[in-house]
Amino acid sequence: MKERTGLEQGLESYQSLSQEFTDTVELLELAEAESDSDMQSEALDALRAIAAKAEERGIETLLSGETDECDTYLDINAGAGGTESQDWAGMLQRMYVRWADNHGMKVEVIDEHSGEEAGLKSTTLLIKGKSAHGWLKTESGVHRLVRISPFDSNARRHTSFASVWVYPVIDDNIEIEIEDKDVRTDTYRASGAGGQHVNKTDSAIRLTHIPTGIVVQCQNDRSQHKNRATAWNMLKAKLYEQELKKREEEAQATADSKTEIGWGHQIRSYVLQPYQMVKDLRTNVESSNPSAVLDGDIDTFLNAALASKIKGTSEDGETDLKSI
Hints:
8 helices, 3 domains, Double Stranded RNA Binding Domain, 3-stranded antiparallel sheet, alpha+beta, 324 residues, 8-stranded mixed sheet, Alpha-Beta Plaits
C-alpha cells in the first residue's frame, strides 16, 4: 500500500503538471494572437514556474534506489584539531537537524560524545522521513571549515575537518518472495524410523532454489503438505540469511572506503574567512551565503550531488540539471 500510494502521488503530480503546461501554452498562444503583452508576460512567468517544478520533480524521480525510501543514520566525527574540529562537528549536526526540521522529518540522537570544551567528538543521528536516506546519501565524506577561530585569543584563521557517513535503516522484518519457476520440487520416500506409512509414500520433500543453488529438504512428518510447508520456510530462512550476509559485506565495503579526515579528502568546503563561500568540490556548486547553508539550506547541494551521481555532469564541470 505504501508503494502504491507513492506511485499514485507521482502519477497525479505528473498529470497535474502536464495539464498546467498545456493550459499555459494555450494561454500564451491566445495572448500572441491578440497581441496582449500583459497576458504574454503572465504566461511566460507561469511557464518559468512550471519549468522549476518540473526540475524539482525530475530530481525526485532519481530517488529510486533500493534504500532511498528508508530512514537514515548519519554519523559525524570530528577530525584532528581538538576543540576547533569538535565545534565544527557540532555545527554540522545543527545543520542537518535544521535541514530535517525544514522538511518535516524527525531526528533522534542515537549516540553522542561531547567535546572537552565545546562541540562534539562524535554523534549518530537517526533521521526519519520520506526518502531521508535518498536525499542525504551523497553527504558522506569529509567536510572542511575555514574561519577565524573563536577559541584562538590571537584571532587566527583555522581550518577544521569533520567526516559524515550516511547509511540506511534496514527493516529486518522483510518477506522473502520466491517465484515457483525458480524452485525445483522433488518428492521421495522418507527413510528411517516412522512406521510403514512413512516408508511407503513419497512424503519427503526436497526444494532446490535454482538461482542460488540452495537445497533444503524435510521428511519429519507423514504429511507431504506439512513437509512442503516446512521446507518452504527453511528455504525462505536460508535466502534471508544470505541476503543479510550480502548486506553486511556491502556495509563493510562502504566502511572500508571511508577515508582519512583531513586534507585532500574533502567533498565540500565552508569558508567564512577571508571571504564567504560554500563550494561542493564534486559538482562545483557554490553558495555565497554560508549562514543560510549552516542553518540547513543545503537543498541546492543535495540536488546537484544526486543528479551528478546518477546522471553525470556536463562538460564544464557543472551539474547538468536540464538533462533530467
